[in-house]
């Protein structure tokens, strides 16, 4: 059986040979027998960048090398690296390197180009160092949620932090908790939803929500969402911060899933806050929940 590391290495080689081609995430995920979310999360955990960010960096690094080492025309380089026009290439290149392709070729600056990663099993094992997460595997009943949503940059299309964008829906929810009937006290969830299921949109929906027992009398401006009954793995997050949550996700997708008796099932990942009475506590903890099913032999 081909290991996860071998599969990702094969994918990296495929990308190298097809830098000018479109990368269809659905096709790549199916090739690895993973859901689009699982595939992209695993790629980011092992490679250290989103698929979109990695491909963009490799294309522009290849283009920069061509500008420095050859006399090939800028338009030809642009087309060879997957850009449809001179303008689109120049804009992206300047954003990445701080110089237009023309000026870059003339000045020949010393820049650090993005190299192809070399992935080993030792790297995968390294992901778990300092982390000892033994998740609880439970059958979660159907869960009803009520809350507020906002649009955020897709986590698999952009590297920028979006934590600041999450404050508004959470503040809205906390300010209007008293309006929500049938709520389960002190139980909150935060989850990201992709309309396509691929997370390839420029923007996806983030939902800050409270667990409720029914959808009766939903307050104006709030939305509803239902999580179906499902087996899930629940991981403790010792400190609620962007860094700690990302490290937990890297551990889950880069180490725990490939080495566990489970595989990711269809459904939503989410962050769970239970028994939480004060969102301002510095030592606030949470749980990270993923849908799972027994691994097929």
Gyration radius, in Å: 22 Å
What is the overall pLDDT average? 85
- Helix % is 25-40%
**Can you tell me the residue ranges where pLDDT is under 50 for at least 5 consecutive residues?**
none
Number of strands: 9
**Annotated CATH homologous superfamily of the largest domain:** Regulatory factor, effector binding domain
Helix-strand topology string: HHHHHHHHEEHEEEEHEEE
CATH structural architecture of the largest domain: Alpha-Beta Barrel
Name the shape in a single word: globular
How far apart are the termini? 11 Å
How big a fraction of the residues is strand?
15-25%
Number of helices: 10
Which CATH class of the largest domain?
Alpha Beta
Biggest β-sheet, characterized? 9 strands, antiparallel
What is the CATH topology assignment of the largest domain? Multidrug-efflux Transporter 1 Regulator Bmrr, Chain A
Number of domains: 2
Describe the protein.
The protein is of the alpha+beta class and 297 residues long. It has two domains: 2-105, Homeodomain-like (Arc Repressor Mutant, subunit A); 134-292, Regulatory factor, effector binding domain (Multidrug-efflux Transporter 1 Regulator Bmrr, Chain A), CATH 3.20.80.10. The protein has ten helices and nine strands. The protein has helices at 4-17, 25-31, 36-47, 51-69, 74-80, 86-97, 101-107, 121-126, 163-175, 242-259, and strands at residues 136-140, 143-153, 183-193, 203-212, 223-227, 230-237, 262-264, 270-274, 286-294. Strands 1, 2, 3, 4, 5, 6, 7, 8 and 9 form a nine-stranded antiparallel β-sheet that branches. α2 crosses α3 (36-47) and α3 (36-47) crosses α10 (242-259).
């Amino acid at each position: 059986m081909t290991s996860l590391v071998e599969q990702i290495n094969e994918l990296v080689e495929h990308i190298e040979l097809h830098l000018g081609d479109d990368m269809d995430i659905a096709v790549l995920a199916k090739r690895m027998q993973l859901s689009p979310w699982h595939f992209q999360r695993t790629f980011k955990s092992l490679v250290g960048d989103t698929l979109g960010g990695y491909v963009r960096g490799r294309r522009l690094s290849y283009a920069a090398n061509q500008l420095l080492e050859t006399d090939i025309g800028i338009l030809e380089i642009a087309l060879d690296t997957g850009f449809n026009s001179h303008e689109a290439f120049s804009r992206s290149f300047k954003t990445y390197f701080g110089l237009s392709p023309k000026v870059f070729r003339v000045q020949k600056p010393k820049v650090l180009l993005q190299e192809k990663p070399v992935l080993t099993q030792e790297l995968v094992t390294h992901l778990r160092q300092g982390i000892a997460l033994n998740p609880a595997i439970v059958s979660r009943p159907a869960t009803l949620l009520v809350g507020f949503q906002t649009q955020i940059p897709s986590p698999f299309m952009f590297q920028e932090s979006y934590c600041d964008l999450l404050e508004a829906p959470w503040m809205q929810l906390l300010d209007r908790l008293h309006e929500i009937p049938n709520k389960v006290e002190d139980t909150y969830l935060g989850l990201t939803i992709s309309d396509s299921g691929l997370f390839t949109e420029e923007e996806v929906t983030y939902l800050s929500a409270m667990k409720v027992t029914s959808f009766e009398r939903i307050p104006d401006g709030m939305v509803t969402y239902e999580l179906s009954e499902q087996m899930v793995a629940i991981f403790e997050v010792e400190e609620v911060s962007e860094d700690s949550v990302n490290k937990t996700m890297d551990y889950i997708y880069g180490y725990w899933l490939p080495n566990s008796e489970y595989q990711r099932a269809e459904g939503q990942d989410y962050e769970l806050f239970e028994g939480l009475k004060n969102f301002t506590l510095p030592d606030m903890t949470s749980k990270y929940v993923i849908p799972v099913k027994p691994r097929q032999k």
